């Protein structure tokens, strides 16, 4: 076996920049740390102005300050399409109108329930800051759309309609609408916004057309010269991204961030290399799976990416 890459030590001073440290990681980082500069390099290649880029993530991170990074990526048009879950709408909208609070993992959940406080990891979300405010605001929006004659709408069109009615640049939905970047929610009924759509449809001729979203995704992948994806966490968001890309022969670039173990056979735990066997990622694609908490990794990854462009 040829031994040609020597392990070196980090040399970090008070003047070292994130770009300097990322560059050193190729030779100095070990274990998962070596994957960080690979991920930044792949994301940099994806942002060449020619690649069609997908961004997928679960809703939970939108309850944290990581929302600001996702918002900036959409604002700066670094992504071509977003795939996520209904909770992303819930948290993005709720945080426009009410505050979320820092909590702690060891909280007494029975006591929280009695006090009307929901716990999402170590984030505390009072009922009035989530379901109650979303119910009142969404019914107003849905009624307005209905009064305008809209009876059938895709999830990405609905999100644009909501975004067009917002006046807050901290919102991901606002920037999706402003830049006309489609956000597709395959599991739209799995959340508060989805429930409000269902309740509204009980006495209104109003439906969400998921197949129109699928047609959009088909058009995107078939028209793309190259495709790349930053996938955060697993579930339906990740799978919908790789599923549609298989029809064009697979992704050309892929960066996956996960905390899930591989040995349980779940999609969340499956490393990107497994998708190669399904044709969802090309055999010669540039890809990496980075194990770790996205709320810790993304701020540094995004900053390093910006400095590399």
Structure report:
The chain is of the alpha/beta class. Helix content is 45%, strand content 16%. The chain contains 13 helices and eleven strands. The strands form three sheets. Strands 7-2-1-9-10-11 form a six-stranded parallel sheet, with helices on both faces. It has a three-stranded antiparallel sheet with strand order 3-5-4. A two-stranded parallel sheet has the order 6-8. Helix 1 packs across helix 2 and helix 3 packs parallel to helix 8 (172-178). The protein is globular.
Quick structural overview:
It contains 13 helices and eleven strands. The chain has 309 residues and is an alpha/beta fold.
Notable features of this structure?
13 helices, 16% strand, 309 residues, alpha/beta, 3-stranded antiparallel β-sheet
Structural class, by secondary structure, is: alpha/beta
Low-confidence stretches: none
Oligomer: single chain
Mean pLDDT: 96
- Percent range for helical residues? 40-55%
Order of helices and strands: HHEHEHEHEEHEHHEHEHEHEHEH
Largest sheet: 6 strands, parallel
Beta fraction of the residues?
15-25%
Biggest sheet, strands in spatial order?
Answer: 7-2-1-9-10-11
Give the C-alpha Rg. Answer: 21 Å
Specify the overall morphology.
globular
- The end-to-end span amounts to 36 Å
């Amino acid at each position: 076996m040829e031994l040609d890459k020597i392990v070196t030590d980090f040399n970090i001073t008070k003047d070292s920049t994130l770009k300097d440290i990322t560059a050193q990681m190729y030779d100095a980082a070990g274990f998962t740390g070596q994957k960080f500069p690979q991920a930044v390099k792949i994301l940099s290649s994806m942002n060449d102005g020619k690649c069609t880029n997908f961004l997928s993530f679960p809703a939970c991170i939108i309850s944290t300050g990581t929302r600001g990074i996702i918002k900036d990526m959409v604002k700066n048009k670094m992504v071509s399409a977003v795939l996520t879950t209904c909770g992303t709408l819930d948290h993005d909208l709720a945080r426009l109108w009410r505050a979320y609070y820092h909590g702690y993992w060891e909280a007494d959940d029975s006591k929280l329930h009695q006090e009307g406080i929901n716990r999402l990891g170590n984030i505390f979300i009072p009922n009035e800051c989530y379901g109650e405010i979303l119910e009142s605001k969404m019914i107003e929006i849905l009624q307005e759309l209905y009064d305008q004659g809209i009876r059938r709408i895709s999830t990405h069109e609905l999100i644009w309609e909501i975004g067009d009615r917002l006046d807050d640049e901290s919102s991901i939905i606002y920037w999706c609408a402003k830049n006309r970047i489609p956000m597709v929610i395959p599991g739209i009924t799995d959340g508060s916004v989805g429930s409000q759509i269902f309740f509204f449809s009980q006495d209104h001729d109003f439906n969400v057309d998921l197949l129109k979203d699928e047609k959009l995704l088909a058009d995107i992948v078939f028209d793309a010269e190259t495709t790349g994806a930053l996938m955060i966490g697993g579930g339906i968001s990740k799978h919908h991204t790789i599923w549609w890309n298989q029809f064009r022969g697979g992704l050309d670039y892929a960066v996956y961030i996960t905390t899930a173990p591989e040995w349980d056979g779940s999609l969340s735990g499956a490393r990107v290399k497994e998708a190669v066997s399904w044709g969802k990622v090309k055999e010669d694609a540039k890809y990496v799976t980075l194990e770790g908490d996205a709320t810790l990794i993304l701020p540094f990854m995004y900053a390093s990416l910006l400095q590399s462009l």
